[in-house]
Design a protein that fits this description.
Length: about 350
């Protein structure tokens, strides 16, 4: 009788616990690994220094904007060398970072190799193209739209129709933006009656050698170029210095380089990567960005915009402003110039 009563009491208690659990299982949202702006771990790898007045400075602005606007604690690493790309990606993935970003297509192959071993880490390469994995999501700014705006200014700025172009590395994105710039600048110069207009393009195969940039710039100017255009991080400062000494003009690119010397850099195409970074991180936190896709941004998204000095000709300003509207309204097919 006692055994039966005891069994019945235990049975009632068991049923009660099943119906009203004392220790409720936490929901997915109660776990500490749910990512918010405050606890997400993000790092940005940069190929150069943040004070280069160019590519690295533009991307570093994204770190500042995310931390200020979203409340993240995003970190960055300057001057990561090619030999260290893969090991640096791997280091932060091992340390449990949620997003490892890198600024430049030169990081693309290393990111793709490392991503296979760390499926819980999202790898985002700005200007990258590899997106064949669930944790690869490159951000692709359409830099050729920015070079088109720069070319419109250059086409009205030149006196003799001779354009000097210097790129850091002949990757595909660089080749595309240089083709758009060169062909557009020459076309505008010819429309102004400078029928012998032409451009010369050289690659430095360096992103940081300021002395080399100055030398290349001076040589191009000595050979007739009166307007210079460069996209090569710190090396670009050398190109501008060469133009200052030779009294040539420069259309700045990738940041507001008019601050270097507004008499030489009379206009610049600024990159608002701060807006791009904030949008990308916020979208990832909201679950809107995943792997297996390339995210493209450009002039319509407000990423690129011209900056003019008082030394920029009025017709160049007017033409560039019109070019901005043409891109926004899909009135130009820039890919036809690749």
């Amino acid at each position: 009788m006692k055994k039966t009563l005891t069994f019945r009491i235990l049975l009632v208690l068991l049923i009660s616990l099943m119906a009203f659990p004392i220790f409720a299982k936490p929901s997915a949202e109660s776990y500490s690994d749910v990512k918010t702006a405050e606890n997400v771990k993000i790092v940005l790898l940069l190929p150069g220094e943040i004070n280069d007045q160019g590519w690295n400075a533009s991307n570093y602005a994204g770190v500042i904007a995310c931390n200020k606007t979203l409340g993240t604690s995003m970190e960055y690493v300057e001057s990561v060398q090619p030999a260290d790309f893969e090991s640096t990606f791997r280091e932060y993935a091992i340390r449990g970072y949620d997003i490892v970003m890198a600024a430049g297509s030169q990081f693309d192959e290393a990111a793709s190799r490392v991503a296979k071993s760390f499926p819980k880490t999202m790898f985002m390469v700005v200007n990258g193209s590899s997106h064949d994995q669930d944790n690869l999501c490159p951000l692709f700014p359409k830099e050729y739209e920015a070079s088109y705006l720069a070319a419109v200014i250059a086409g009205y700025l030149t006196k003799n129709g001779q354009f000097g172009l210097i790129g850091g590395d002949p990757n595909q994105a660089m080749q595309d933006l240089m083709a758009v710039y060169g062909k557009t600048a020459v076309s505008i110069a010819k429309s102004r009656g400078i029928m012998n207009a032409s451009y010369k393009l050289q690659y430095s195969n360096s992103w940081s050698d300021i002395a080399l940039g100055k030398q290349m710039s001076e040589t191009m100017i000595d050979n007739g170029a009166d307007v210079m255009f460069v996209y090569a991080n710190e090396l670009g400062l050398g190109v501008i210095n060469g133009a200052i000494g030779k009294k040539a003009k420069v259309v700045g690119y990738s940041s507001d380089q008019t601050v270097v010397d507004p008499n030489t850099v009379v206009a610049s195409i600024d990159f608002d990567y701060a807006t791009m970074y904030v949008w990308a991180i916020k979208s990832w936190l909201n679950g809107d960005i995943k792997g297996h896709q390339i995210i493209e941004v450009g002039v319509p998204e407000g990423i690129y915009f011209p900056v003019y000095t008082k030394n920029c000709p009025a017709d160049a300003v007017e033409a560039c402003n019109k070019a901005v509207e043409d891109i926004k309204n899909s009135r130009v097919n820039l890919k036809a110039l690749f």
